[in-house]
Design a protein that fits this description.
By secondary structure, the chain is an alpha/beta fold. The protein contains two helices and six strands; from the N terminus they run βαβββββα. The strands form two sheets. A four-stranded parallel β-sheet has the order 3-2-1-4, with no helix packed on it. A two-stranded antiparallel ribbon has the order 5-6.
């Protein structure tokens, strides 16, 4: 499984659930956030808003679970699905 948003509250919970059921989980994370990934998840370094930063890490036939949001001074920005599709289209 390939998960975006794995360092947030919901993402960590989802990853822990998947790992407890024997799934191999690879989670997209920024370099500074990898320590927040649950133990057992493999970190994939990249930025969810830039498909080019992680497209190389996605594998054909892999399930991608997308749950990533980014907060800034103006509010919350959800990771655009077209970015995930762009990454998936490269494999």
């Amino acid at each position: 499984m390939f998960v975006t948003g794995g360092t947030g509250y919901l993402g960590r919970t989802l990853i822990e659930w998947l790992l407890a059921r024997g799934h191999r989980v690879r989670a997209l994370a920024r370099t500074a956030s990898t320590a927040r990934l649950p133990r057992g998840a493999e970190a994939v370094l990249g930025d969810a808003l830039d498909a080019g930063s992680y497209a190389h890490a996605m594998q054909k036939g892999e399930v991608a679970l997308v749950r990533a949001v980014e907060s800034d001074a103006t509010g919350v920005t959800t990771v655009p699905v077209p970015e995930i599709r762009r990454a998936a289209d490269t494999i």
